[in-house]
Amino acid sequence: MTDTAPDQTQGTPSPDLKIIETRVYRGPNIWSYDPAIHLVVDLGSLENFPSNTIDGFTERLLEYLPRLDQHHCSRGRRGGFIERLHEGTWLGHIAEHVSLQLQQEAGHDMRRGKTRQVKGVPGRYNIIYSYADEGVGLAAGELAVRFVNYLVQPTEDFDFTTELEKFIRIAERSAFGPSTQAIVDEAVSRDIPWIRLNKFSLVQLGQGVHAKRIRATMTSETGSIAVDVASDKDLTTKLLASAGLPVPRSVSVRDVDDAVSAANKIGYPVVCKPLDGNHGRGVCLNLQDADAVREAFPIAAEQSRRGSVIVESFVTGKDYRCLIINGRMEAIAERVPAHVVGDGVHTVAELVDITNADPRRGVGHEKILTRITVNTAARELVKSQGFEMDDVPPEETMVKLTLTGNMSTGGISIDRTFEAHPENVEIAEEAARMIGLDIAGIDFICPDITQPVRETGGAICEVNAAPGFRMHTNPTIGDPQYIAKPVVDMLFPPGATSRIPIVAVTGTNGKTTTSRMISHVFKGMGRKVGMTSTDGIVIDERLVIRSDASGPKSARMVLQNPRVDFAVFEVARGGILREGLGYQRNDVAVVLNIQPDHLGMRGVDTLEQLADVKAVLVEAVPRNGFAVLNADDPLVRKMRRKCSGEVVWFSIAESGSEVREYIEGHCRRGGRAVVLERSDLGDMIIMKHGRRSMQLAWTHLLPATFGGRAMMNVQNAMAAAAAAFAAGAPLHDIRQGLRTFNTSYYLSPGRLNEIDVDGRTVIVDYCHNAPAMRMLGDFVDKLGESLNASSELGRPSRIGVIATAGDRRDDDMRELGEVAAQHFDVVIVREDVRLRGRQAGSTAELVTEGVRTAMENGARCRQVETVLEELTAVQHALSRSNRGDLVVLCVDQHQQVLSHLESVSHLAQAGARSGDEGGDPDFVKPDESEADESEE
């Protein structure tokens, strides 16, 4: 929002700001290239009260959120937003900035946003702002609106400080841990895509066949046997000892008496710890006698899933964690147990509170340090050092609150990466190899890591699978180690591919067929193609989900599939408006056409607005990508300005036309195009690259074009060829793919499927809008002429079953009927099962109205009927037809219809073989009462 609000106050401001609609864009969208939250808000009476007209508003806002003074806003400099506040700006714009700042308060550095008024609706605004975590972003928007209302009219039932704390806790609960976040950040810096697979730490890096998974610091390369071995501390000790590595003497026991016996045999002091514990839970150190062992045993056993406890010799020295990644030592940290240092003034309890007040400390793993917890064990430990919690320890006196140095119990870390003796490094690397872990945390206890442990004494006391990274990435003392780099290097070595090629197809008509053609080309090349379309998700020729899968969620499902090495996405308008794209970018974007369909929905009222929605795919093309655009469509042609990559044109325009001259100039400059050359021999598809021209195929030799009659499939084939060429397919593979692609139900279900039903030519298609009906009508005219020329039964009739979706405009429905009436002798109007907000019969009535209008104006159609139920309409069309007729069925449930046609065809053939002249009952024309009942 860039304009400053004028002073236009009327009356008294009321807290009327409210959210009307919320959307979450999970990829590029019509507002931004990045994921964003979209709030549609209504200001109500606040439309008349910009910020400079509300007494004390700006001052109260900055009192609660002083860091808003860092926001640039439209001024492009720090403090620009504050200037806007003083000059006067609308409260929707302020809610946008508050939403961004709230996320920054939670540690998410979000800076991008915009606010725009909804055209023609006073007081209503679109607020768009970026987010890192979807739940946090939504919560920020909701809190921002409540906060702005509070600033307008303060109330006692809203405490911003309390609400902010709740919001930050929400952010902390949903945030990645430090280890996962470090790996994800490293992946992002290398342009490796990632997907969060659950609410916790399971993350996919890469796409399709290149995908790897991490969960905290366990990876898809981590062996389950290695994890099991590391979890069994007794087995770990035995394996390390067998390799000659220094380990403490240890015994695994299951009851307290055996624990005492083991301790007596090993010699005091000893350690009791759970067999398969973690994070230092249940570890009891420096046990001096049998009574101490008896007290410690149940503590350790409680943390063991198997109920077993390890009793081992107590090794004295400092606690070091050696991090081994892919066989190499990458970091070493000295871990210091949770403690406080006396200052001669404060008590132990007060020192703990002062230490916990450090903003770096939080609960669990939410921050780089963990708050110290004072429990019974901590009090006992303090007491053993000669203090009570209320005592004031002398200055510089260290008072331990835990014995273990785990960060999760409040300890601190000191980086020692470059101080370790080479022999100690070798021992740690050998330990990781013995266990078999790709990422391992080797816990050393020794007097000094700079000296060889075999000389100074010391041992490996534990090997950890999935070791935490924060002691290395955020040491309390010393330099941070960027250990996420070797992890990502291991998963994606330099030069390795993390992305699979993505071809995205959009347009008003032809998306599904074009997507199928592209998929067929690459399947013929041996690729494992994942395809989404309005019919479902297909993985390597198998339909795995049957539904309308042309949205972003389906795209993400394909990218998660480990078999897919090439993706083809049909991208519909609705998915873009609802969630944006389901991925970051597409290597090839294909835009077929922009026609008047879906207008009047979700704020898209004009063709230009619809083109802006479809252009999101073009904007998502990277610099090394391609946009395949229909040069014959002016709105598609304009999209070239939004493409960062290279444009590939396709066109059926005649040679010498203005469009062809433009394309020729494009190719002379080194560009690419697919054009149609017409001659007496037929139409030839030509691929052009620079000054080279390559013949691809005669259109009449491509099965999907019905001998060149189906011009819509000629265009679809040209678009598919251009997309495949841009995606790197060789010319001969493109040619072979198009020559072997046909409109059989196996390859193209529900799109121009032809079937012979007892001498009738039946075409099954999905056509549902007027522009598509024009193309289908042209095909029907050409096919009808061919059938007429070969018919021995007289002039065949053309019967069409048509329908449209209930969410189209009334005029669009009438236009569909008018166009259909130009090409069919009989039109039967049906309705989809999903009425989309319409009353039953109302959609069919509007389509029928259009047919009758055309009939009055001399259209070909001589009769129109209404049969609402789809299968009944199909049966009625067949009953109205005779042998040699052309029946075109525009249906929604094509599987059900094709199944019925197949059964009818088989029954008719069986009847003919048996000499039954009566035929199949499905072909018996109903009497008038039955027909009237069907029409009702």
From TrEMBL:
It comes from the Bacteria. Keywords: ATP-binding, Ligase, Nucleotide-binding. Catalyzes the ATP-dependent polymerization of arginine and aspartate to multi-L-arginyl-poly-L-aspartic acid (cyanophycin; a water-insoluble reserve polymer). The lineage of its organism: Bacteria, Bacillati, Actinomycetota, Actinomycetes, Propionibacteriales. Residues 237-492 form the ATP-grasp domain. In the C-terminal section; belongs to the MurCDEF family. InterPro entries: ATP-grasp (IPR011761), CPAse_ATP-bd (IPR005479), Cya_phycin_syn (IPR011810), Cyanophycin_syn_N (IPR044019), Mur-like_cat_sf (IPR036565), Mur_ligase_C (IPR004101), Mur_ligase_C_dom_sf (IPR036615), Mur_ligase_cen (IPR013221). This is Cyanophycin synthetase. Its EC number is 6.3.2.29, 6.3.2.30. Residues 908-936 are annotated as: Disordered.
